[in-house]
Amino acid sequence: MVYEKRRFTDEQIQIANSVNILEYAKQYFDVKRVGTNSYKIEGYGGLYIDPINNMWNCFSQGKGGGPIQFIMFTENKSWVESVKQLLGLTISNNVGNYKKDIRQSEENIKGELILPEKNNTYKHIIAYLIKTRKIDKNIVYKFIKDKKLYEDKNKNCVFVGYDKEGNARYASIRGTNTNIDKFRGEVKNSNKAYSFNLFNKDSDTVYVFESPIELMSYMSLKNEFNHNAVSLGGIYDMALNQFLKENENIKSIHLCLNNDDAGKTGTNLIVEKYKKDYNIVVEYPSLKDFNKDLMILRNFTRGNSYEEATEEELEI
Protein backbone atom coordinates (compact mmCIF):
# COMPACT_ATOMS: atom_id res chain seq x y z
CA MET A 1 0.00 0.00 0.00
CA VAL A 2 1.29 3.47 -0.84
CA TYR A 3 0.94 5.82 2.11
CA GLU A 4 -0.42 9.16 0.92
CA LYS A 5 2.47 11.66 0.93
CA ARG A 6 4.14 9.46 3.57
CA ARG A 7 2.12 11.11 6.31
CA PHE A 8 2.93 8.52 8.97
CA THR A 9 6.12 6.91 10.22
CA ASP A 10 6.40 3.14 10.45
CA GLU A 11 6.21 3.48 14.23
CA GLN A 12 2.96 5.45 14.04
CA ILE A 13 1.41 2.88 11.72
CA GLN A 14 2.49 0.16 14.13
CA ILE A 15 0.90 2.07 17.02
CA ALA A 16 -2.36 2.44 15.09
CA ASN A 17 -2.37 -1.28 14.34
CA SER A 18 -1.77 -2.10 18.01
CA VAL A 19 -4.99 -0.46 19.22
CA ASN A 20 -7.23 -3.04 20.88
CA ILE A 21 -10.11 -3.60 18.45
CA LEU A 22 -12.39 -5.10 21.09
CA GLU A 23 -11.99 -2.22 23.51
CA TYR A 24 -12.46 0.31 20.72
CA ALA A 25 -15.59 -1.47 19.51
CA LYS A 26 -17.07 -1.56 23.02
CA GLN A 27 -17.01 2.25 23.10
CA TYR A 28 -19.15 2.64 19.99
CA PHE A 29 -21.02 -0.58 19.22
CA ASP A 30 -23.24 -3.20 20.81
CA VAL A 31 -20.72 -6.00 21.37
CA LYS A 32 -21.77 -9.47 22.56
CA ARG A 33 -19.53 -12.28 23.73
CA VAL A 34 -20.36 -15.41 21.72
CA GLY A 35 -17.49 -17.70 22.69
CA THR A 36 -14.40 -18.03 24.84
CA ASN A 37 -12.38 -15.84 22.50
CA SER A 38 -15.01 -14.48 20.12
CA TYR A 39 -17.17 -11.37 20.15
CA LYS A 40 -19.88 -10.26 17.75
CA ILE A 41 -21.03 -6.74 16.87
CA GLU A 42 -24.82 -6.69 16.70
CA GLY A 43 -26.47 -5.39 13.55
CA TYR A 44 -23.76 -6.46 11.12
CA GLY A 45 -24.76 -10.02 10.39
CA GLY A 46 -21.41 -11.73 10.74
CA LEU A 47 -18.87 -9.26 12.14
CA TYR A 48 -16.74 -11.08 14.70
CA ILE A 49 -13.74 -9.92 16.72
CA ASP A 50 -10.86 -12.18 17.74
CA PRO A 51 -9.32 -10.43 20.79
CA ILE A 52 -6.38 -12.85 21.02
CA ASN A 53 -5.05 -12.00 17.57
CA ASN A 54 -6.58 -8.49 17.54
CA MET A 55 -8.33 -9.19 14.24
CA TRP A 56 -11.89 -9.01 12.91
CA ASN A 57 -13.93 -10.60 10.13
CA CYS A 58 -17.29 -9.83 8.56
CA PHE A 59 -18.10 -13.12 6.90
CA SER A 60 -21.23 -11.90 5.13
CA GLN A 61 -19.19 -9.32 3.18
CA GLY A 62 -15.86 -11.10 2.99
CA LYS A 63 -14.07 -8.30 4.84
CA GLY A 64 -11.58 -8.40 7.68
CA GLY A 65 -8.24 -7.24 9.01
CA GLY A 66 -6.76 -5.24 11.86
CA PRO A 67 -7.65 -1.95 13.60
CA ILE A 68 -7.10 0.30 10.57
CA GLN A 69 -9.33 -1.81 8.34
CA PHE A 70 -11.89 -1.98 11.14
CA ILE A 71 -12.29 1.81 11.14
CA MET A 72 -12.36 1.92 7.35
CA PHE A 73 -15.12 -0.69 7.24
CA THR A 74 -17.34 0.36 10.14
CA GLU A 75 -17.05 4.14 9.74
CA ASN A 76 -16.57 4.40 5.98
CA LYS A 77 -13.31 6.34 6.32
CA SER A 78 -10.21 6.43 4.17
CA TRP A 79 -6.99 4.74 5.22
CA VAL A 80 -5.44 8.08 6.22
CA GLU A 81 -8.52 9.16 8.21
CA SER A 82 -8.59 5.79 9.99
CA VAL A 83 -4.94 5.98 11.03
CA LYS A 84 -5.44 9.54 12.28
CA GLN A 85 -8.41 8.46 14.35
CA LEU A 86 -6.55 5.53 15.89
CA LEU A 87 -3.60 7.75 16.75
CA GLY A 88 -5.87 10.29 18.38
CA LEU A 89 -4.73 13.02 15.97
CA THR A 90 -7.55 15.37 16.71
CA ILE A 91 -5.90 18.43 18.20
CA SER A 92 -3.22 18.98 15.54
CA ASN A 93 -3.08 18.25 11.84
CA ASN A 94 0.67 17.84 12.10
CA VAL A 95 1.42 14.16 12.50
CA GLY A 96 5.00 14.93 13.41
CA ASN A 97 3.86 16.62 16.63
CA TYR A 98 2.05 13.57 17.85
CA LYS A 99 3.91 12.08 20.81
CA LYS A 100 1.35 9.94 22.62
CA ASP A 101 1.31 6.17 22.41
CA ILE A 102 -2.32 5.13 22.63
CA ARG A 103 -1.83 1.38 22.92
CA GLN A 104 -4.84 0.01 24.73
CA SER A 105 -5.46 -3.10 26.80
CA GLU A 106 -8.66 -4.71 28.02
CA GLU A 107 -8.05 -3.07 31.39
CA ASN A 108 -7.85 0.39 29.82
CA ILE A 109 -10.33 2.84 31.31
CA LYS A 110 -11.67 5.63 29.15
CA GLY A 111 -10.11 8.89 30.28
CA GLU A 112 -11.35 12.44 30.61
CA LEU A 113 -12.36 14.45 27.58
CA ILE A 114 -10.03 17.42 27.19
CA LEU A 115 -11.40 19.97 24.74
CA PRO A 116 -8.91 21.65 22.38
CA GLU A 117 -7.85 25.13 23.46
CA LYS A 118 -10.03 27.91 22.08
CA ASN A 119 -8.67 30.47 19.68
CA ASN A 120 -9.18 34.19 20.35
CA THR A 121 -11.21 34.55 17.16
CA TYR A 122 -14.03 32.87 15.23
CA LYS A 123 -13.16 34.36 11.85
CA HIS A 124 -11.73 31.19 10.29
CA ILE A 125 -14.68 28.96 11.14
CA ILE A 126 -17.10 31.73 10.12
CA ALA A 127 -15.38 32.02 6.74
CA TYR A 128 -15.30 28.26 6.27
CA LEU A 129 -18.83 27.39 7.37
CA ILE A 130 -20.66 30.41 5.99
CA LYS A 131 -18.68 31.43 2.92
CA THR A 132 -17.23 28.09 1.83
CA ARG A 133 -19.84 25.59 3.00
CA LYS A 134 -22.72 28.10 2.48
CA ILE A 135 -24.38 27.46 5.84
CA ASP A 136 -26.79 30.16 7.00
CA LYS A 137 -24.97 32.59 9.28
CA ASN A 138 -27.73 32.66 11.91
CA ILE A 139 -27.43 28.90 12.32
CA VAL A 140 -23.66 29.13 12.73
CA TYR A 141 -24.05 31.97 15.25
CA LYS A 142 -26.64 30.00 17.21
CA PHE A 143 -24.36 27.02 17.72
CA ILE A 144 -21.46 29.29 18.68
CA LYS A 145 -23.62 31.10 21.25
CA ASP A 146 -24.83 27.75 22.59
CA LYS A 147 -21.16 26.73 23.08
CA LYS A 148 -21.60 23.80 20.74
CA LEU A 149 -19.20 25.24 18.17
CA TYR A 150 -15.94 27.15 18.47
CA GLU A 151 -12.56 27.67 16.81
CA ASP A 152 -9.45 26.04 18.25
CA LYS A 153 -5.86 27.30 18.16
CA ASN A 154 -5.27 25.42 14.91
CA LYS A 155 -8.17 27.28 13.24
CA ASN A 156 -10.32 24.14 13.18
CA CYS A 157 -14.06 23.91 13.77
CA VAL A 158 -14.78 22.12 17.05
CA PHE A 159 -18.29 20.67 17.40
CA VAL A 160 -19.19 19.81 21.01
CA GLY A 161 -21.79 17.45 22.46
CA TYR A 162 -23.02 17.57 26.08
CA ASP A 163 -24.80 15.26 28.51
CA LYS A 164 -27.99 16.28 30.33
CA GLU A 165 -25.94 17.78 33.17
CA GLY A 166 -24.22 20.14 30.74
CA ASN A 167 -20.86 18.38 30.76
CA ALA A 168 -18.95 18.22 27.49
CA ARG A 169 -18.74 14.53 26.56
CA TYR A 170 -17.95 14.60 22.86
CA ALA A 171 -16.08 16.77 20.38
CA SER A 172 -15.30 16.41 16.70
CA ILE A 173 -12.95 18.54 14.66
CA ARG A 174 -13.13 19.75 11.08
CA GLY A 175 -10.29 21.59 9.40
CA THR A 176 -10.97 24.93 7.73
CA ASN A 177 -8.00 25.16 5.36
CA THR A 178 -9.42 24.55 1.90
CA ASN A 179 -5.94 24.47 0.32
CA ILE A 180 -4.92 21.17 1.96
CA ASP A 181 -6.51 17.78 2.32
CA LYS A 182 -9.58 17.62 4.52
CA PHE A 183 -8.82 17.08 8.19
CA ARG A 184 -11.41 15.67 10.53
CA GLY A 185 -11.52 13.48 13.58
CA GLU A 186 -12.74 13.13 17.13
CA VAL A 187 -11.11 14.39 20.30
CA LYS A 188 -9.63 11.58 22.35
CA ASN A 189 -12.04 10.13 24.95
CA SER A 190 -15.11 11.44 23.13
CA ASN A 191 -18.28 9.48 23.84
CA LYS A 192 -20.31 9.11 20.65
CA ALA A 193 -23.49 8.65 22.71
CA TYR A 194 -23.39 12.40 23.41
CA SER A 195 -22.63 13.63 19.91
CA PHE A 196 -23.36 17.11 18.57
CA ASN A 197 -27.11 17.80 18.58
CA LEU A 198 -29.92 20.34 18.62
CA PHE A 199 -32.58 20.05 21.32
CA ASN A 200 -36.17 21.33 21.21
CA LYS A 201 -38.32 20.16 24.11
CA ASP A 202 -41.50 21.10 22.23
CA SER A 203 -40.86 18.75 19.30
CA ASP A 204 -41.64 15.02 19.22
CA THR A 205 -39.46 14.47 16.13
CA VAL A 206 -35.71 13.96 15.86
CA TYR A 207 -33.80 14.41 12.60
CA VAL A 208 -30.68 12.28 12.21
CA PHE A 209 -27.53 13.13 10.23
CA GLU A 210 -24.05 11.73 9.78
CA SER A 211 -22.16 14.94 10.64
CA PRO A 212 -22.65 18.40 12.19
CA ILE A 213 -22.09 20.14 8.85
CA GLU A 214 -24.81 18.06 7.21
CA LEU A 215 -27.15 18.82 10.11
CA MET A 216 -26.50 22.55 9.77
CA SER A 217 -26.81 22.37 5.99
CA TYR A 218 -30.24 20.76 6.22
CA MET A 219 -31.36 23.49 8.61
CA SER A 220 -30.12 26.06 6.10
CA LEU A 221 -32.17 24.48 3.32
CA LYS A 222 -35.37 24.88 5.34
CA ASN A 223 -37.05 28.21 5.95
CA GLU A 224 -37.77 27.11 9.51
CA PHE A 225 -36.50 24.19 11.53
CA ASN A 226 -38.09 23.66 14.93
CA HIS A 227 -37.22 20.06 15.72
CA ASN A 228 -34.57 18.03 17.48
CA ALA A 229 -31.54 16.98 15.47
CA VAL A 230 -28.68 14.57 16.14
CA SER A 231 -25.35 14.05 14.40
CA LEU A 232 -24.25 10.42 14.64
CA GLY A 233 -20.60 11.06 13.88
CA GLY A 234 -20.90 8.32 11.27
CA ILE A 235 -23.70 5.92 10.40
CA TYR A 236 -24.27 4.04 13.64
CA ASP A 237 -26.99 4.81 16.12
CA MET A 238 -25.28 5.25 19.49
CA ALA A 239 -26.10 8.99 19.67
CA LEU A 240 -29.68 8.42 18.50
CA ASN A 241 -30.20 5.65 21.02
CA GLN A 242 -28.99 7.86 23.89
CA PHE A 243 -31.14 10.77 22.72
CA LEU A 244 -34.25 8.57 22.62
CA LYS A 245 -33.54 7.22 26.11
CA GLU A 246 -33.32 10.75 27.49
CA ASN A 247 -36.34 12.10 25.57
CA GLU A 248 -39.25 9.70 25.88
CA ASN A 249 -41.61 12.15 24.15
CA ILE A 250 -40.05 11.41 20.75
CA LYS A 251 -42.49 9.71 18.38
CA SER A 252 -40.88 10.18 14.96
CA ILE A 253 -37.38 9.64 13.58
CA HIS A 254 -36.50 11.47 10.36
CA LEU A 255 -33.41 9.85 8.83
CA CYS A 256 -31.25 12.13 6.68
CA LEU A 257 -28.10 10.08 6.17
CA ASN A 258 -25.97 10.35 3.06
CA ASN A 259 -27.04 9.20 -0.37
CA ASP A 260 -24.28 6.59 -0.74
CA ASP A 261 -23.74 2.93 0.11
CA ALA A 262 -22.64 3.62 3.70
CA GLY A 263 -25.51 6.03 4.36
CA LYS A 264 -28.05 3.60 2.97
CA THR A 265 -26.60 0.76 5.03
CA GLY A 266 -26.84 2.88 8.19
CA THR A 267 -30.37 3.95 7.31
CA ASN A 268 -31.51 0.36 6.81
CA LEU A 269 -29.98 -0.73 10.13
CA ILE A 270 -31.70 2.09 12.02
CA VAL A 271 -35.05 1.48 10.32
CA GLU A 272 -34.97 -2.20 11.27
CA LYS A 273 -34.01 -1.45 14.86
CA TYR A 274 -36.58 1.29 15.59
CA LYS A 275 -39.50 0.74 13.22
CA LYS A 276 -41.63 -1.07 15.80
CA ASP A 277 -41.56 1.80 18.28
CA TYR A 278 -41.30 4.94 16.16
CA ASN A 279 -42.70 6.49 13.01
CA ILE A 280 -39.74 6.62 10.63
CA VAL A 281 -39.27 8.88 7.62
CA VAL A 282 -36.31 8.47 5.26
CA GLU A 283 -35.09 11.49 3.28
CA TYR A 284 -31.98 11.25 1.14
CA PRO A 285 -30.25 14.31 -0.35
CA SER A 286 -30.32 14.73 -4.12
CA LEU A 287 -26.52 14.55 -4.23
CA LYS A 288 -24.21 12.69 -1.84
CA ASP A 289 -25.07 14.79 1.22
CA PHE A 290 -27.12 17.82 2.20
CA ASN A 291 -24.14 20.15 2.20
CA LYS A 292 -23.54 19.39 -1.47
CA ASP A 293 -27.23 20.09 -2.11
CA LEU A 294 -26.92 23.38 -0.24
CA MET A 295 -23.77 24.48 -2.06
CA ILE A 296 -25.32 23.81 -5.46
CA LEU A 297 -28.36 25.87 -4.48
CA ARG A 298 -26.32 28.75 -3.03
CA ASN A 299 -23.97 28.90 -5.99
CA PHE A 300 -26.92 29.93 -8.12
CA THR A 301 -27.62 32.82 -5.75
CA ARG A 302 -25.53 35.97 -5.44
CA GLY A 303 -25.31 38.63 -2.78
CA ASN A 304 -27.32 36.86 -0.09
CA SER A 305 -26.65 37.21 3.62
CA TYR A 306 -24.62 34.01 3.83
CA GLU A 307 -21.86 35.80 1.90
CA GLU A 308 -21.86 38.85 4.14
CA ALA A 309 -21.20 37.38 7.56
CA THR A 310 -18.50 38.97 9.70
CA GLU A 311 -17.15 38.17 13.14
CA GLU A 312 -18.23 41.60 14.38
CA GLU A 313 -21.88 40.55 14.05
CA LEU A 314 -21.41 37.77 16.56
CA GLU A 315 -22.28 38.84 20.09
CA ILE A 316 -21.41 36.31 22.78
Task: Describe the structure in your own words.
By secondary structure, this protein is α+β, with helices and mostly antiparallel strands. The chain folds into 2 domains: 4-97, Zinc finger, CHC2-typedomain (DNA Primase, Chain A); 123-311, Dna Topoisomerase Vi A Subunit, Chain: A, domain 2 (3-Layer(aba) Sandwich). It is 30% helix and 18% strand. The protein has 10 helices and 14 strands. It has helices at residues 10-17, 21-28, 67-75, 79-87, 123-132, 137-145, 212-221, 238-246, 261-274, 290-298; strands at residues 31-35, 38-41, 47-50, 55-58, 63-65, 149-151, 157-162, 168-174, 184-186, 197-198, 205-209, 228-231, 252-255, 279-282. The strands form 3 sheets. A 5-stranded antiparallel β-sheet has the order 1-2-3-4-5, covered by helices on one side. It has a 5-stranded mixed β-sheet with strand order 10-12-11-13-14. The protein has a 4-stranded antiparallel β-sheet with strand order 6-7-8-9. The longest helix has 14 residues, at 261-274. It is globular and about 60 Å long. The chain starts with 9 loop residues before the first helix and ends in an 18-residue tail after the last helix. Mean pLDDT is 83; it is low at 1-6 and 89-109.
